[in-house]
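Quick one: structure for this chain?
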Amino acid sequence: MGEQDVGVVSYHLGGGGLAGGFQGFRDDGFRGGVLMALAAGGGQVVGGLLFELGALTPLASVTGIGVMTVAVTAKWGNWLWSQRNGYEFPGHLVIASATLALTGPGAWSVDRVLGHRTWLMAVAVGAIAIGAASGYCSATTATEEPGRAVRPD
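Got it. Here's what it folds into:
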């Protein structure tokens, strides 16, 4: 989550802006492209900033896992490898977000300054579950054909 995310909602850093984000979601079979582009891009930007600052790590994990679960389901039919537009890269981001939820923020983080060395395990596991469930629900309810985004071709 980073420069690509800014490109989903703006033309900065070589992005296609909302029009490009909208078209990308339409190409993946989602309806409501502008709203999806805003939600996904906004979630990625906010989650990415929270991760970079080490602030509210469980919330950052929810956004990262949720948005990237949608990406995994959209690319599932292309199989694993990124060279074939597969789910390898978003899958790695899901794993990284879950790992950060479990391990907590680093030594130089806003959470650490506020006294959160690690979050309770229940909070971390809850963040992972909420992120995965919200991403899966978004992917299965926002497609033109119900289940299209999660059914392999």
